[in-house]
Write a structure and sequence with these properties.
The structure holds two protein chains of two kinds.
Chain A: E1 4-6, E2 9-13, E3 18-23, E4 30-36, E5 43-49, E6 55-57, E7 60-65, E8 70-75, E9 84-91, E10 100-101, E11 105-110
Parallel strand pairs in A: 2-11
Antiparallel strand pairs in A: 1-3, 3-8, 4-5, 4-9, 6-7, 7-8, 9-10, 9-11
Chain B: E1 5-7, E2 10-13, E3 19-24, E4 31-38, E5 42-50, E6 53-57, E7 64-68, E8 74-78, E9 87-94, E10 104-105, E11 109-113
Parallel strand pairs in B: 2-11
Antiparallel strand pairs in B: 1-3, 3-8, 4-5, 4-9, 5-6, 7-8, 9-10, 9-11
Classes of the chains: A mainly beta, B mainly beta.
Amino acid sequence: QQPVQSPQAVILREGEDAVINCSSSKALYSVHWYRQKHGEAPVFLMILLKGGEQKGHDKISASFNEKKQQSSLYLTASQLSYSGTYFCGTEPTYNNNDMRFGAGTRLTVKP
Amino acid sequence: KAGVTQTPRYLIKTRGQQVTLSCSPISGHRSVSWYQQTPGQGLQFLFEYFSETQRNKGNFPGRFSGRQFSNSRSEMNVSTLELGDSALYLCASTPYGTGNYGYTFGSGTRLTVV
């Protein structure tokens, strides 16, 4: 079952913050986040595991609420390079090898 | 090190034909997954292979099949092509699976069925 992402699209000015949410109706073991730029392959950003800590690098971080089966991706002080479509992928069990992706959130950062 | 390589990059086929797409994972990666990406449906899981065995399969008709070779290279085949099969087909690899690893995706094969 595919997770649900919100919002579908976001438009920001450079320096603004954004939050992208991902929720599932099933219990989750892991949540993955990817970014895809137009015409390119999705690129792995980070993985959050059940029982793990909030992760992040640079100004992009994410949290995982196991009880609510939700994850959020936080982009702070956005840069032009952050533009793209963000996907969350979820797995219900460890090494399920059957990752389901949300429909994506299109993020546009303007100067 | 080399990334995930998919060939060909573009394909145009006629309805009713069949097509074979190839994916070479990152050296040392033994798990290969395939996804179909369309504007309306997003990323849809097709199947995953590990050590030449299919471990999981998505909700696609039997016209979609795949295999993996002993060197971890994988192929997917679509028989009796339909217009709705037009999509970007992405393969992704990990060392053992997705348990604690993120996917490395290839650039994809864009299939157009006319």
